[in-house]
Amino acid sequence: MRVVHPDHPLIDHKLTYLRDKRTDSPTFRRLAEELMTLLAYEATRDVRVEPFEIETPVAPTTGIKLSNPKPLIVPILRAGLGMLEGMVRLLPSAEVGFLGMQRDEETLAITTYANRLPADLSGRQVYALDPMLATGGSMADALRFLIERGADDITAVCLLAAPEGIARLEREMAGVLPPVTLVVGAIDEQLNEHGYIVPGLGDAGDRLYGVV
Ligand SMILES: O=P(O)(O)OC[C@H]1O[C@H](OP(=O)(O)OP(=O)(O)O)[C@H](O)[C@@H]1O
Ligand SMILES: O=c1cc[nH]c(=O)[nH]1
Ligand SMILES: [Mg+2]
C-alpha cells in the first residue's frame, strides 16, 4: 500500500482548528471540506485522463480531459459525508456512491448498514472518503467491498490516521489487487484504550452531525 502524507502548512493549520474542541459544528464542517479539497489535489494526481483537441483563440492545441468512466467517489457514512463536497468541488463530473458503516463503541466491530454503489465497479477509479482511520476496521471492510465489486484503482482519503490503522490496512491489503493508495492529512501518535485516535479530534461523525 502506498501511503501519501502531503506536507503543507495550510493542511496543518486547518487540522489544528479541526482538532480544537472549541470548534463548533458549522466551522468543523467547513474545515473538513476545505481539508478534503487540499488532500484531493494529491489524491487525484493519477486520475485518468485522455488527450482532448481544442482550439484556443490563437491556435489548435491538444489538452487533456478526464476519461470515461468518470471516477466514483464513495463517502463512508456518516463522517465521510463531511468530506464529499470538498472532493466534488475538484471533480464535479464524478459519480457518488455510498457506504454506511458503524463501529460498535464497545467491541470496535464494524457493521455495514447501507450500500448504494454500482453493482459492477470494474474499470472504475474509486476514491473512498472517511476522516478517521483508527483501528482500520471500517476502511478495511470498505476496501474489500469495493474490490469484490471489481474496482481496479482505489484511493482512500482520511483526514487523520493512527499508526495502528495504517499497519492493519498494510497487513490486510498486502498482495491484494489492485494496490491501494492511502492519502492522509496527518498520522497521529496512537490509539487510546477506547480505540480513539490520540490526540485526534474526538468522534468525527458527532462533531459534524451531532451525538446520536
Ligand atoms: O478505523 P475504525 O476503528 O474502524 O474507526 C473509524 C470509523 O469510526 C468512525 O465512524 P463511526 O462508526 O463513529 O460512524 P459515524 O461516522 O456514523 O459517526 C469514523 O468515521 C470511521 O468510519
Ligand atoms: O478517534 C476516532 C476513532 C474512530 N472514530 C472517530 O470518529 N474518532
Ligand atoms: Mg462516529
Automatic annotation (TrEMBL):
UniProt key word DNA damage? no
Provide the reaction this enzyme catalyses. Answer: UMP + diphosphate = 5-phospho-alpha-D-ribose 1-diphosphate + uracil
Q: Name one Pfam family in it.
A: UPRTase
Return one GO MF term.
glycosyltransferase activity
Activity control, as annotated, is: Allosterically activated by GTP.
Q: Which InterPro entries match?
A: PRTase-like, PRTase_dom, Upp_B, UPRT, UPRTase/APRTase
For the ligand (uracil), the binding residues are: I197, G202, D203, A204
Task: Return the CDD domains for the record.
Answer: PRTases_typeI
**Required cofactor(s):** Mg(2+)
The answer, when asked if 4Fe-4S is one of the entry's keywords, is: no
Residues that coordinate or bind 5-phospho-alpha-D-ribose 1-diphosphate: R78, R103, D130, P131, M132, L133, A134, T135, G136, G137, S138, D203
Coiled-coil annotated spans: none
Q: List each copy of the Phosphoribosyltransferase domain by range.
A: 6-210
Q: Matching NCBIfam families, A to Z?
A: PRK00129.1, upp
Family named by the database record: Belongs to the UPRTase family.
Task of the protein: Catalyzes the conversion of uracil and 5-phospho-alpha-D-ribose 1-diphosphate (PRPP) to UMP and diphosphate.
Per its record, how is this protein called by name?
Uracil phosphoribosyltransferase
Q: Which organism is it from?
A: Nostocoides vanveenii
Q: Which gene encodes it?
A: upp
